[in-house]
Amino acid sequence: AQKEAEEYVKRKNLSAAEAETYFDEQARETLDTVNGYLSTIADKAQDEVGQLSQGFEAMRVAIYKRNQELQTFNASLDGLVRERTQQLEMRNSELSTQIAERQRAERSLRLVESAIVQIDEGVVIAPADALPNGVPEYLNPGFFKTLHLTPDTPVAGGLISLFGDAPVPASFRTAWATACSGTQQTVEVSLTRGDGSDGIIEWHVAPLRDLDGRVSSVVSILRDLTEQKREEAQRHQGQKMESIGQLAAGVAHEINTPIQFIGDNLRFLGDSFGDLTNVLDTHSKLLEAARTNDVLAEAIVATDAANKRADVAYLSEEIPKAIAQSLEGVTRVAEIVRAMKEFSHPDQGEKKPTDLNKAITTTLIVARNEYKYVADLVTEFDPELPAVPCIVGEFNQVVLNLIVNAAHAIGDVIATTGGKGVLTISTKVDGDYVEVRIRDSGTGIPESARAKIFDPFFTTKAVGKGTGQGLYIAHTVVAKKHGGTLTFETEIGKGTTFIIRLPMSP
Protein backbone atom coordinates (compact mmCIF):
# COMPACT_ATOMS: atom_id res chain seq x y z
CA ALA A 1 0.00 0.00 0.00
CA GLN A 2 2.95 2.35 0.78
CA LYS A 3 4.55 1.59 -2.61
CA GLU A 4 1.26 2.11 -4.43
CA ALA A 5 0.79 5.52 -2.67
CA GLU A 6 4.31 6.65 -3.53
CA GLU A 7 3.87 5.65 -7.18
CA TYR A 8 0.56 7.48 -7.27
CA VAL A 9 2.18 10.72 -5.92
CA LYS A 10 4.96 10.48 -8.51
CA ARG A 11 2.55 9.83 -11.32
CA LYS A 12 0.24 12.69 -10.32
CA ASN A 13 3.16 14.89 -9.37
CA LEU A 14 1.47 15.92 -6.23
CA SER A 15 2.89 18.48 -3.91
CA ALA A 16 4.14 17.60 -0.51
CA ALA A 17 1.00 18.85 1.09
CA GLU A 18 -1.19 16.92 -1.35
CA ALA A 19 0.93 13.91 -0.95
CA GLU A 20 0.69 14.09 2.83
CA THR A 21 -3.06 14.50 2.58
CA TYR A 22 -3.20 11.59 0.17
CA PHE A 23 -1.04 9.50 2.40
CA ASP A 24 -3.23 10.35 5.39
CA GLU A 25 -6.40 9.33 3.51
CA GLN A 26 -4.73 6.14 2.34
CA ALA A 27 -3.56 5.44 5.86
CA ARG A 28 -7.06 6.05 7.24
CA GLU A 29 -8.60 3.79 4.59
CA THR A 30 -5.95 1.17 5.25
CA LEU A 31 -6.46 1.51 8.99
CA ASP A 32 -10.23 1.29 8.55
CA THR A 33 -9.74 -1.78 6.41
CA VAL A 34 -7.37 -3.32 8.94
CA ASN A 35 -9.66 -2.40 11.81
CA GLY A 36 -12.62 -3.89 10.01
CA TYR A 37 -10.56 -6.94 9.24
CA LEU A 38 -9.35 -7.12 12.82
CA SER A 39 -12.88 -6.63 14.10
CA THR A 40 -14.08 -9.42 11.91
CA ILE A 41 -11.19 -11.55 13.05
CA ALA A 42 -11.87 -10.65 16.67
CA ASP A 43 -15.54 -11.52 16.37
CA LYS A 44 -14.64 -14.72 14.69
CA ALA A 45 -11.93 -15.40 17.26
CA GLN A 46 -14.36 -14.63 20.05
CA ASP A 47 -16.81 -17.13 18.57
CA GLU A 48 -14.03 -19.64 18.18
CA VAL A 49 -12.81 -18.94 21.71
CA GLY A 50 -16.35 -19.56 22.98
CA GLN A 51 -16.50 -22.73 21.07
CA LEU A 52 -13.05 -23.67 22.32
CA SER A 53 -14.10 -22.80 25.87
CA GLN A 54 -17.10 -25.06 25.54
CA GLY A 55 -14.88 -27.74 24.03
CA PHE A 56 -12.28 -27.28 26.78
CA GLU A 57 -15.03 -27.51 29.41
CA ALA A 58 -16.33 -30.69 27.85
CA MET A 59 -12.78 -31.95 27.67
CA ARG A 60 -12.21 -30.97 31.30
CA VAL A 61 -15.36 -32.82 32.35
CA ALA A 62 -14.38 -35.80 30.23
CA ILE A 63 -10.85 -35.71 31.60
CA TYR A 64 -12.22 -35.47 35.16
CA LYS A 65 -14.50 -38.42 34.56
CA ARG A 66 -11.64 -40.27 32.93
CA ASN A 67 -9.41 -39.48 35.89
CA GLN A 68 -12.11 -40.75 38.23
CA GLU A 69 -12.43 -43.89 36.16
CA LEU A 70 -8.66 -44.21 36.09
CA GLN A 71 -8.50 -43.75 39.88
CA THR A 72 -11.23 -46.37 40.34
CA PHE A 73 -9.48 -48.66 37.88
CA ASN A 74 -6.13 -48.05 39.57
CA ALA A 75 -7.65 -48.79 42.97
CA SER A 76 -9.26 -51.94 41.55
CA LEU A 77 -6.02 -52.79 39.82
CA ASP A 78 -4.06 -52.25 43.05
CA GLY A 79 -6.47 -54.53 44.90
CA LEU A 80 -6.26 -57.12 42.16
CA VAL A 81 -2.48 -56.84 42.14
CA ARG A 82 -2.36 -57.20 45.94
CA GLU A 83 -4.75 -60.17 45.80
CA ARG A 84 -2.80 -61.74 42.98
CA THR A 85 0.45 -61.04 44.81
CA GLN A 86 -0.92 -62.71 47.95
CA GLN A 87 -2.06 -65.67 45.86
CA LEU A 88 1.34 -65.87 44.24
CA GLU A 89 3.02 -65.63 47.63
CA MET A 90 0.76 -68.37 48.99
CA ARG A 91 1.41 -70.46 45.90
CA ASN A 92 5.12 -69.84 46.24
CA SER A 93 4.90 -70.88 49.89
CA GLU A 94 2.97 -74.00 48.92
CA LEU A 95 5.46 -74.74 46.18
CA SER A 96 8.30 -74.22 48.63
CA THR A 97 6.61 -76.60 51.07
CA GLN A 98 5.96 -79.10 48.31
CA ILE A 99 9.52 -78.81 47.11
CA ALA A 100 10.77 -79.31 50.67
CA GLU A 101 8.44 -82.27 51.12
CA ARG A 102 9.51 -83.65 47.75
CA GLN A 103 13.12 -83.24 48.76
CA ARG A 104 12.42 -84.93 52.08
CA ALA A 105 10.53 -87.71 50.29
CA GLU A 106 13.35 -88.14 47.80
CA ARG A 107 15.85 -88.17 50.66
CA SER A 108 13.69 -90.71 52.51
CA LEU A 109 13.40 -92.81 49.37
CA ARG A 110 17.14 -92.73 48.94
CA LEU A 111 17.56 -93.75 52.59
CA VAL A 112 14.95 -96.50 52.22
CA GLU A 113 16.55 -97.71 49.03
CA SER A 114 19.96 -97.65 50.70
CA ALA A 115 18.55 -99.52 53.69
CA ILE A 116 16.80 -102.10 51.49
CA VAL A 117 20.06 -102.67 49.66
CA GLN A 118 21.93 -103.14 52.95
CA ILE A 119 19.52 -105.40 54.86
CA ASP A 120 19.93 -109.18 54.87
CA GLU A 121 16.23 -109.85 54.28
CA GLY A 122 15.10 -110.29 50.71
CA VAL A 123 12.76 -107.69 49.21
CA VAL A 124 10.79 -108.39 46.04
CA ILE A 125 8.24 -106.28 44.18
CA ALA A 126 6.24 -108.19 41.58
CA PRO A 127 3.05 -107.61 39.56
CA ALA A 128 -0.20 -108.44 41.32
CA ASP A 129 -0.99 -111.48 39.16
CA ALA A 130 -3.35 -114.24 40.19
CA LEU A 131 -0.22 -116.39 40.56
CA PRO A 132 3.25 -115.03 41.33
CA ASN A 133 4.57 -115.90 37.88
CA GLY A 134 5.14 -112.37 36.60
CA VAL A 135 8.68 -111.08 36.14
CA PRO A 136 9.70 -109.26 39.36
CA GLU A 137 9.92 -105.48 39.12
CA TYR A 138 12.57 -105.20 41.85
CA LEU A 139 14.94 -107.56 43.66
CA ASN A 140 17.34 -106.37 46.35
CA PRO A 141 20.70 -108.08 47.03
CA GLY A 142 19.23 -109.67 50.17
CA PHE A 143 16.85 -111.67 47.98
CA PHE A 144 19.73 -113.53 46.36
CA LYS A 145 21.53 -113.88 49.69
CA THR A 146 18.45 -115.27 51.46
CA LEU A 147 17.86 -117.90 48.78
CA HIS A 148 21.58 -118.63 48.24
CA LEU A 149 21.38 -117.47 44.61
CA THR A 150 24.00 -115.72 42.54
CA PRO A 151 23.17 -112.10 41.58
CA ASP A 152 22.89 -113.05 37.91
CA THR A 153 20.32 -115.80 38.54
CA PRO A 154 17.37 -115.12 36.21
CA VAL A 155 13.90 -115.03 37.73
CA ALA A 156 12.11 -114.59 34.43
CA GLY A 157 9.67 -117.37 35.26
CA GLY A 158 8.32 -115.46 38.25
CA LEU A 159 8.61 -116.30 41.93
CA ILE A 160 6.99 -119.71 41.50
CA SER A 161 10.07 -120.73 39.50
CA LEU A 162 12.01 -120.65 42.77
CA PHE A 163 10.27 -123.88 43.80
CA GLY A 164 11.75 -125.69 40.82
CA ASP A 165 10.03 -128.99 40.07
CA ALA A 166 8.45 -129.15 43.52
CA PRO A 167 4.76 -128.14 43.79
CA VAL A 168 4.16 -124.60 44.98
CA PRO A 169 2.86 -124.79 48.59
CA ALA A 170 -0.85 -124.07 48.85
CA SER A 171 -0.17 -121.71 51.76
CA PHE A 172 2.05 -119.59 49.51
CA ARG A 173 -0.55 -119.44 46.74
CA THR A 174 -3.21 -118.48 49.27
CA ALA A 175 -1.04 -115.77 50.84
CA TRP A 176 -0.25 -114.31 47.41
CA ALA A 177 -3.92 -114.28 46.38
CA THR A 178 -4.77 -112.65 49.72
CA ALA A 179 -2.20 -109.90 49.10
CA CYS A 180 -3.56 -109.34 45.57
CA SER A 181 -7.00 -108.83 47.12
CA GLY A 182 -5.62 -106.19 49.49
CA THR A 183 -4.65 -107.98 52.71
CA GLN A 184 -1.13 -108.75 53.91
CA GLN A 185 -0.18 -112.17 55.21
CA THR A 186 2.86 -114.10 56.43
CA VAL A 187 3.57 -117.76 55.69
CA GLU A 188 6.47 -120.15 56.10
CA VAL A 189 7.47 -122.18 53.05
CA SER A 190 10.03 -124.89 52.50
CA LEU A 191 12.09 -124.87 49.33
CA THR A 192 15.44 -125.92 47.95
CA ARG A 193 17.82 -122.96 47.90
CA GLY A 194 20.23 -122.07 45.14
CA ASP A 195 23.08 -124.11 46.63
CA GLY A 196 20.90 -127.22 46.82
CA SER A 197 20.26 -127.00 50.58
CA ASP A 198 16.73 -127.21 51.97
CA GLY A 199 15.55 -124.10 53.75
CA ILE A 200 12.57 -122.66 55.58
CA ILE A 201 11.68 -119.15 54.41
CA GLU A 202 9.32 -116.74 56.15
CA TRP A 203 7.50 -115.03 53.30
CA HIS A 204 5.59 -111.84 54.15
CA VAL A 205 3.46 -110.50 51.29
CA ALA A 206 1.60 -107.17 51.26
CA PRO A 207 -0.30 -105.20 48.59
CA LEU A 208 0.99 -102.04 46.89
CA ARG A 209 -1.69 -99.68 45.55
CA ASP A 210 -1.60 -97.18 42.71
CA LEU A 211 -2.98 -93.61 42.84
CA ASP A 212 -6.48 -94.93 42.19
CA GLY A 213 -6.25 -97.27 45.18
CA ARG A 214 -6.07 -100.44 43.12
CA VAL A 215 -3.61 -103.20 44.01
CA SER A 216 -1.04 -103.01 41.24
CA SER A 217 1.91 -104.87 42.76
CA VAL A 218 2.82 -107.06 45.69
CA VAL A 219 5.84 -106.46 47.90
CA SER A 220 7.40 -109.52 49.53
CA ILE A 221 9.87 -109.66 52.38
CA LEU A 222 11.80 -112.93 52.74
CA ARG A 223 13.58 -114.04 55.90
CA ASP A 224 15.63 -117.23 56.18
CA LEU A 225 14.38 -119.14 59.22
CA THR A 226 16.38 -122.29 58.58
CA GLU A 227 18.99 -121.80 61.31
CA GLN A 228 16.43 -120.28 63.68
CA LYS A 229 14.12 -123.26 63.24
CA ARG A 230 17.03 -125.63 63.71
CA GLU A 231 18.09 -123.84 66.88
CA GLU A 232 14.49 -123.74 68.12
CA ALA A 233 14.17 -127.46 67.49
CA GLN A 234 17.42 -128.10 69.31
CA ARG A 235 16.40 -125.78 72.13
CA HIS A 236 12.97 -127.34 72.33
CA GLN A 237 14.49 -130.80 72.32
CA GLY A 238 16.97 -129.65 74.94
CA GLN A 239 14.17 -128.28 77.10
CA LYS A 240 12.25 -131.49 76.59
CA MET A 241 15.28 -133.53 77.57
CA GLU A 242 15.85 -131.18 80.50
CA SER A 243 12.28 -131.76 81.62
CA ILE A 244 12.72 -135.49 81.17
CA GLY A 245 16.00 -135.26 83.06
CA GLN A 246 14.27 -133.42 85.90
CA LEU A 247 11.64 -136.13 85.94
CA ALA A 248 14.24 -138.87 85.87
CA ALA A 249 14.83 -138.58 89.61
CA GLY A 250 11.10 -138.77 90.22
CA VAL A 251 10.74 -141.70 87.86
CA ALA A 252 13.70 -143.40 89.52
CA HIS A 253 11.98 -142.85 92.86
CA GLU A 254 8.73 -144.23 91.45
CA ILE A 255 10.53 -147.28 90.14
CA ASN A 256 12.60 -147.62 93.33
CA THR A 257 9.50 -148.02 95.53
CA PRO A 258 8.11 -151.13 93.80
CA ILE A 259 11.64 -152.45 93.25
CA GLN A 260 12.32 -152.03 96.96
CA PHE A 261 9.36 -154.09 98.08
CA ILE A 262 10.06 -156.59 95.30
CA GLY A 263 13.59 -156.94 96.75
CA ASP A 264 12.28 -157.16 100.33
CA ASN A 265 9.75 -159.78 99.29
CA LEU A 266 12.35 -161.76 97.36
CA ARG A 267 14.73 -161.68 100.35
CA PHE A 268 11.84 -162.78 102.54
CA LEU A 269 11.08 -165.59 100.12
CA GLY A 270 14.77 -166.55 100.05
CA ASP A 271 15.01 -166.71 103.84
CA SER A 272 11.66 -168.44 104.13
CA PHE A 273 12.61 -170.95 101.46
CA GLY A 274 15.43 -172.26 103.74
CA ASP A 275 12.95 -172.84 106.54
CA LEU A 276 10.55 -174.53 104.17
CA THR A 277 13.41 -176.72 102.92
CA ASN A 278 14.02 -177.90 106.50
CA VAL A 279 10.30 -178.56 106.94
CA LEU A 280 10.15 -180.45 103.67
CA ASP A 281 13.23 -182.49 104.73
CA THR A 282 11.62 -183.46 108.02
CA HIS A 283 8.39 -184.25 106.18
CA SER A 284 10.36 -186.48 103.87
CA LYS A 285 11.99 -188.26 106.81
CA LEU A 286 8.58 -188.58 108.46
CA LEU A 287 7.16 -190.02 105.29
CA GLU A 288 10.10 -192.45 105.02
CA ALA A 289 9.75 -193.47 108.69
CA ALA A 290 6.03 -193.96 108.22
CA ARG A 291 6.77 -196.27 105.31
CA THR A 292 9.14 -198.44 107.43
CA ASN A 293 7.27 -197.93 110.71
CA ASP A 294 10.65 -197.21 112.25
CA VAL A 295 10.82 -194.70 115.11
CA LEU A 296 7.60 -192.93 113.96
CA ALA A 297 7.14 -191.03 117.18
CA GLU A 298 10.60 -189.49 116.96
CA ALA A 299 10.00 -188.36 113.34
CA ILE A 300 6.69 -186.75 114.27
CA VAL A 301 8.37 -184.80 117.07
CA ALA A 302 11.08 -183.61 114.68
CA THR A 303 8.50 -182.58 112.16
CA ASP A 304 6.52 -180.60 114.70
CA ALA A 305 9.70 -178.87 115.78
CA ALA A 306 10.54 -177.94 112.19
CA ASN A 307 7.02 -176.61 111.64
CA LYS A 308 7.30 -174.45 114.70
CA ARG A 309 10.72 -173.14 113.72
CA ALA A 310 9.53 -172.29 110.23
CA ASP A 311 6.14 -170.91 111.37
CA VAL A 312 4.48 -172.64 108.44
CA ALA A 313 1.12 -170.95 109.08
CA TYR A 314 2.73 -167.49 108.84
CA LEU A 315 4.67 -168.46 105.74
CA SER A 316 1.54 -169.87 104.15
CA GLU A 317 -0.18 -166.53 104.65
CA GLU A 318 2.68 -164.15 103.81
CA ILE A 319 4.39 -165.87 100.91
CA PRO A 320 1.34 -165.47 98.58
CA LYS A 321 1.14 -161.82 99.64
CA ALA A 322 4.84 -161.33 98.92
CA ILE A 323 4.44 -162.94 95.51
CA ALA A 324 1.36 -160.79 94.76
CA GLN A 325 3.17 -157.62 95.85
CA SER A 326 6.17 -158.56 93.74
CA LEU A 327 3.98 -159.10 90.71
CA GLU A 328 2.25 -155.78 91.38
CA GLY A 329 5.64 -154.10 91.66
CA VAL A 330 6.79 -155.66 88.41
CA THR A 331 3.57 -154.44 86.76
CA ARG A 332 4.10 -150.91 88.08
CA VAL A 333 7.71 -150.88 86.94
CA ALA A 334 6.62 -152.05 83.49
CA GLU A 335 3.87 -149.41 83.47
CA ILE A 336 6.29 -146.63 84.42
CA VAL A 337 8.85 -147.76 81.87
CA ARG A 338 6.17 -148.01 79.17
CA ALA A 339 4.81 -144.56 80.05
CA MET A 340 8.31 -143.12 80.00
CA LYS A 341 8.90 -144.68 76.60
CA GLU A 342 5.62 -143.36 75.20
CA PHE A 343 6.22 -139.92 76.69
CA SER A 344 9.69 -139.56 75.19
CA HIS A 345 8.98 -141.38 71.92
CA PRO A 346 9.87 -139.12 68.94
CA ASP A 347 6.85 -138.14 66.83
CA GLN A 348 8.58 -136.40 63.88
CA GLY A 349 6.46 -133.32 64.53
CA GLU A 350 3.50 -134.66 62.55
CA LYS A 351 -0.13 -134.60 63.62
CA LYS A 352 -1.69 -138.01 64.10
CA PRO A 353 -5.06 -139.10 65.53
CA THR A 354 -4.38 -139.28 69.25
CA ASP A 355 -6.22 -140.70 72.26
CA LEU A 356 -5.85 -137.71 74.58
CA ASN A 357 -7.09 -139.66 77.60
CA LYS A 358 -4.27 -142.17 77.11
CA ALA A 359 -1.71 -139.41 76.45
CA ILE A 360 -2.70 -137.58 79.65
CA THR A 361 -2.63 -140.84 81.65
CA THR A 362 0.89 -141.52 80.35
CA THR A 363 2.02 -138.04 81.37
CA LEU A 364 0.45 -138.43 84.82
CA ILE A 365 2.42 -141.64 85.38
CA VAL A 366 5.65 -139.93 84.40
CA ALA A 367 4.89 -136.86 86.55
CA ARG A 368 3.49 -138.74 89.54
CA ASN A 369 6.45 -137.94 91.73
CA GLU A 370 5.78 -134.21 91.15
CA TYR A 371 2.26 -134.19 92.57
CA LYS A 372 1.73 -137.31 94.71
CA TYR A 373 3.13 -135.74 97.86
CA VAL A 374 1.12 -132.51 97.59
CA ALA A 375 -2.18 -133.41 95.91
CA ASP A 376 -4.77 -136.09 95.46
CA LEU A 377 -5.42 -136.76 91.78
CA VAL A 378 -8.95 -136.67 90.36
CA THR A 379 -9.50 -137.59 86.70
CA GLU A 380 -12.78 -136.96 84.89
CA PHE A 381 -12.14 -138.37 81.41
CA ASP A 382 -14.84 -138.60 78.78
CA PRO A 383 -14.81 -142.29 77.79
CA GLU A 384 -16.32 -141.42 74.39
CA LEU A 385 -13.65 -138.84 73.59
CA PRO A 386 -12.78 -139.07 69.86
CA ALA A 387 -9.23 -139.18 68.54
CA VAL A 388 -7.81 -135.69 67.93
CA PRO A 389 -5.18 -134.69 65.33
CA CYS A 390 -2.23 -133.98 67.55
CA ILE A 391 1.57 -133.93 67.79
CA VAL A 392 1.45 -136.26 70.76
CA GLY A 393 5.00 -135.61 72.04
CA GLU A 394 4.47 -131.86 72.17
CA PHE A 395 0.99 -132.27 73.65
CA ASN A 396 2.50 -134.42 76.40
CA GLN A 397 5.05 -131.68 77.06
CA VAL A 398 2.26 -129.09 77.39
CA VAL A 399 0.33 -131.27 79.85
CA LEU A 400 3.52 -132.00 81.79
CA ASN A 401 4.31 -128.29 82.16
CA LEU A 402 0.78 -127.56 83.38
CA ILE A 403 0.83 -130.47 85.85
CA VAL A 404 4.21 -129.41 87.27
CA ASN A 405 3.00 -125.80 87.60
CA ALA A 406 -0.20 -127.02 89.31
CA ALA A 407 1.82 -129.16 91.73
CA HIS A 408 4.05 -126.19 92.59
CA ALA A 409 1.01 -123.94 93.13
CA ILE A 410 -0.59 -126.52 95.45
CA GLY A 411 2.75 -127.01 97.23
CA ASP A 412 2.90 -123.27 98.00
CA VAL A 413 -0.47 -123.56 99.75
CA ILE A 414 0.11 -126.73 101.78
CA ALA A 415 3.52 -125.43 102.90
CA THR A 416 1.59 -123.20 105.31
CA THR A 417 -1.68 -125.09 105.75
CA GLY A 418 -0.49 -128.70 105.76
CA GLY A 419 -2.52 -131.58 104.34
CA LYS A 420 -2.87 -132.15 100.62
CA GLY A 421 -4.53 -130.27 97.80
CA VAL A 422 -6.48 -131.54 94.80
CA LEU A 423 -5.33 -131.82 91.19
CA THR A 424 -8.27 -132.37 88.83
CA ILE A 425 -7.91 -133.22 85.14
CA SER A 426 -10.93 -133.56 82.87
CA THR A 427 -11.64 -134.06 79.18
CA LYS A 428 -14.79 -133.48 77.15
CA VAL A 429 -16.11 -132.60 73.69
CA ASP A 430 -17.23 -129.00 73.27
CA GLY A 431 -18.62 -128.31 69.79
CA ASP A 432 -15.87 -128.81 67.21
CA TYR A 433 -13.21 -128.88 69.91
CA VAL A 434 -11.94 -131.24 72.58
CA GLU A 435 -11.40 -129.47 75.87
CA VAL A 436 -8.83 -130.47 78.49
CA ARG A 437 -9.01 -128.78 81.90
CA ILE A 438 -6.20 -128.96 84.47
CA ARG A 439 -7.39 -127.49 87.76
CA ASP A 440 -5.35 -126.98 90.92
CA SER A 441 -6.29 -125.87 94.41
CA GLY A 442 -3.32 -123.52 94.60
CA THR A 443 -2.92 -119.84 95.32
CA GLY A 444 -4.30 -118.46 92.05
CA ILE A 445 -2.54 -116.08 89.66
CA PRO A 446 -2.05 -112.47 90.87
CA GLU A 447 -3.92 -109.79 88.92
CA SER A 448 -0.64 -108.08 87.97
CA ALA A 449 0.71 -111.24 86.33
CA ARG A 450 -2.31 -112.39 84.33
CA ALA A 451 -1.69 -110.28 81.22
CA LYS A 452 1.91 -111.52 80.98
CA ILE A 453 1.45 -115.14 81.97
CA PHE A 454 2.21 -116.46 78.45
CA ASP A 455 5.07 -114.02 77.75
CA PRO A 456 8.51 -115.59 77.22
CA PHE A 457 10.84 -115.51 80.24
CA PHE A 458 8.06 -114.25 82.53
CA THR A 459 7.69 -116.20 85.76
CA THR A 460 6.16 -115.66 89.19
CA LYS A 461 8.48 -118.23 90.75
CA ALA A 462 11.51 -117.40 92.83
CA VAL A 463 14.85 -116.87 91.11
CA GLY A 464 16.33 -120.18 90.06
CA LYS A 465 13.00 -122.05 90.22
CA GLY A 466 11.64 -121.23 86.79
CA THR A 467 12.82 -120.12 83.36
CA GLY A 468 9.56 -118.47 82.28
CA GLN A 469 9.53 -120.64 79.15
CA GLY A 470 7.07 -123.40 80.13
CA LEU A 471 3.78 -121.55 79.62
CA TYR A 472 5.18 -119.62 76.64
CA ILE A 473 6.13 -122.87 74.89
CA ALA A 474 2.82 -124.47 75.89
CA HIS A 475 0.86 -121.56 74.42
CA THR A 476 2.94 -121.62 71.24
CA VAL A 477 2.46 -125.36 70.79
CA VAL A 478 -1.31 -125.22 71.34
CA ALA A 479 -2.02 -122.04 69.34
CA LYS A 480 0.44 -122.15 66.46
CA LYS A 481 1.10 -125.85 65.96
CA HIS A 482 -2.38 -127.17 66.73
CA GLY A 483 -4.64 -124.23 65.87
CA GLY A 484 -6.17 -124.37 69.33
CA THR A 485 -6.31 -122.11 72.37
CA LEU A 486 -4.74 -122.15 75.82
CA THR A 487 -6.53 -119.96 78.36
CA PHE A 488 -7.00 -119.93 82.10
CA GLU A 489 -9.49 -119.16 84.84
CA THR A 490 -8.15 -118.16 88.21
CA GLU A 491 -9.29 -116.97 91.61
CA ILE A 492 -6.98 -115.81 94.37
CA GLY A 493 -6.96 -118.30 97.21
CA LYS A 494 -9.04 -120.83 95.24
CA GLY A 495 -6.75 -121.99 92.48
CA THR A 496 -6.33 -121.92 88.71
CA THR A 497 -7.72 -123.91 85.80
CA PHE A 498 -5.81 -124.04 82.52
CA ILE A 499 -8.02 -124.88 79.55
CA ILE A 500 -6.64 -126.52 76.40
CA ARG A 501 -8.97 -126.53 73.38
CA LEU A 502 -7.88 -128.50 70.32
CA PRO A 503 -9.88 -128.69 67.05
CA MET A 504 -11.14 -132.17 66.16
CA SER A 505 -10.48 -131.58 62.45
CA PRO A 506 -6.99 -130.97 60.97
State the main characteristics.
506 residues, alpha+beta, five-stranded antiparallel sheet, five-stranded mixed sheet, 12 helices
What spatial form do the alpha-carbon principal axes imply? rod-shaped
- List segments where confidence is low: pLDDT < 50 over at least 5 consecutive residues: 463-467
- The helix count comes to 12
Structural class: alpha+beta
* N/C terminus separation: 145 Å
Structure, explained:
This protein is of the alpha+beta class. 60% of the residues lie in helices and 17% in strands. The protein contains 12 helices and 12 strands. A hairpin with a 2-residue loop joins strand 9 and strand 10 (433-440). Strands 2-1-5-4-3 form a 5-stranded antiparallel beta sheet. Strands 7-9-10-12-11 form a 5-stranded mixed beta sheet. Strands 6-8 form a two-stranded antiparallel sheet.
